Amino acid sequence: MERTEIIIGGDTAGIEWRAPVFRFEGSDATAPSVYIQAALHANELPGVAVAHFLLEKLRAADAEGTIRGDITVIPQANPIGLAQSHFGEMEGRFDLGSRTNFNRDFPLVALAERDTLIADLDRRSAVERLKRTLLHTALGHDLVLDLHCDDESLQYAYIDDAFWPEAADLASALDMQAVFLSDGESTAFEEAVGHAFKHQGGDKLKTVPGRLSVTVELRGRRDVYAGMAARDADGLWAFLAGRGVVADPALSVRAYTGPAVPLDNIEMVKAPTPGTILFHRDVGETVRAGDILATLITHPGEADGTITVAARHDGLIATRNSARYARRGDDLMKIAGHEATRRDRKPGTLED
Ligand SMILES: [Zn+2]
């Protein structure tokens, strides 16, 4: 194993950030290579814990000589966001200087143009240098996993159609409860990687066998526990074994039996008016159209001071807002349905 660091000099004097990078060299040049990063949104820590346990397994495998493909793990990918403290809370999602989401504005380049990402890096801001260095590193691999989490959530992933159903082995290995099939049309890290894989130099490819770029949502922000993270690390290990990146003949991959739904099937349940939220249903529950999901206390103390919010379609509650006050139009839940419920969705991810 080789441990290096991505070192990002600050945009002001006297500042420098460091992100450790762990590299394992595989014994078989024909085996797929893998890149795994966690906490690009610095306040999403389930992936950091999973990467920590996975690295423990990989160090042991390295000592036993069972690593076949090259593996790179960056367990805490965003030291800039990690250091942003604002009114007592970590602001890990947006760069405070530019108000830009740390998981947007990744450059969209073809795989053949990979090295242009790191040309003239010194002229770019610290956040741009971090993004370009991460993307450049990832594009040196066949399989790329970006570990995120949602607010309150079951475990699911955003997977571009181009990698489905080949990626069902990852969903099965991690025991995901849902897969959201996306169109790959945004500037998120996962989609910049997918863009490069689909534009390897010539025309856009519809499918890219042997490649993968995925955003894994490791449940909710507070779902950071030793047992849970160790199980997910075992799941990632099983995925790596199934793809031949590590050798573990004892493992066999089961078929994925959970739902795989297009983003057009995701009902975003919104708060029609502001109010204090009383949820009646939790993530992981299935609901029928008309079921009451939440009561909003819009006028506390008044006899008619509440309204109810009902499901408009049958489906599975995938995520829930952790806040208990809703501003008008806030998202309360994401419900994965059986049919397309949205005709107004803009291309790109819902959020991640
Ligand atoms: Zn995220």
UniProtKB/TrEMBL annotation:
Signal peptide stretch: none
Keywords per UniProt: Hydrolase, Metal-binding, Zinc
A Pfam family of this chain: AstE_AspA_cat
Stated name of the protein: Succinylglutamate desuccinylase/aspartoacylase family protein
Cofactor(s) required for function per UniProt: Zn(2+)
SUPFAM superfamilies listed in its UniProt record: Zn-dependent exopeptidases
Keyword Cytoplasm: no
Annotated Succinylglutamate desuccinylase/Aspartoacylase catalytic domain residues: 31-241
InterPro entries the record matches: AstE_AspA_cat, N-alpha-Ac-DABA_deacetylase
Annotated organism of origin: Shinella oryzae
Xref: Gene3D superfamilies: Zn peptidases (3.40.630.10)
